[in-house]
Design a protein that fits this description.
By secondary structure, this protein is α+β, with helices and mostly antiparallel strands. The protein has helices spanning 3-12, 57-71, 108-111, 138-154, 156-160, and strands at residues 21-22, 34-41, 51-56, 75-81, 83-93, 97-104, 118-123, 127-131, 164-175, 181-195. The strands form two sheets. The protein has a six-stranded antiparallel beta sheet. The protein has a four-stranded antiparallel beta sheet with strand order 1-4-2-3, covered by helices on one side. The longest helix has 17 residues, at 138-154.
């Protein structure tokens, strides 16, 4: 399962996900919100594909048209309202364990800059912390573990092939156009993929 398929799987399984929609030339973006756009391809290498994050509607629309012209014939361009991440990370689910890697603020701090506040390894017999054990609350860990169980059940055939499922997540807030948080914090997943 690549990023393209992962977007569709996120809609189908019972976990909180970004409310993504396919971008088209006729998409109308609310000018009172900031937007995120991401490209995904059906086949081939889908790493490091272009995206724009937290931009105004006009810029998002123009970038969306560029992405669509390049990837529209063999992929998908999605858009969703931008959110402010308080904590982010990657959830790895396989048959033997669940690994939660977490970082302060945006996931880019982990995947681009290599920062990590904590790694939590949950196996049948133990829970092991590498880094700052207090970075994640027990409630946050239990919530992530609950959705790891949903992923484990949904993709049991994939896991039985010896693969892992990776899910990107954030504890986040909605935001206004000035990057100010709105409302209560919530958990959101925004990428799902399988890896051998």
């Amino acid at each position: 399962m690549n990023k393209y398929m992962g977007f569709y799987e996120l809609k189908d399984i019972n976990i909180p996900t970004v409310p993504w929609k396919p971008f088209t030339e006729h998409t109308i973006l609310d000018t009172h919100l900031l937007w995120t756009l991401r490209a995904a391809v059906e086949n081939s290498n889908d790493l490091n594909l272009p995206r724009v994050v937290g931009v105004r509607a006009e810029e998002a629309y123009e970038k969306g048209k560029v992405f669509l012209s390049k990837y529209g014939d063999h992929g998908l361009v999605v858009y969703y309202p931008y959110f402010i991440a308080e904590k982010s990370g990657v959830l790895e689910v396989n048959r033997e364990r669940v690994v939660i890697e977490a970082v302060d603020k945006d996931l880019w701090n982990l995947v681009t800059y290599g920062q990590k506040n904590v790694t939590v390894i949950l196996s049948k017999d133990e829970t092991r912390y590498i880094g700052e054990p207090s970075f994640m609350s027990q409630e946050e860990l239990q919530t992530l573990q609950k959705y790891a169980n949903v992923i484990k059940y949904r993709f049991r055939d994939v896991l039985n092939e010896g693969k892992s499922i990776f899910a990107e997540w954030s504890f986040a807030y909605n935001t206004d156009i000035h990057h100010q948080p709105i409302g209560d914090q919530y958990l959101v997943f925004y990428e799902l993929r399988s890896v051998r």
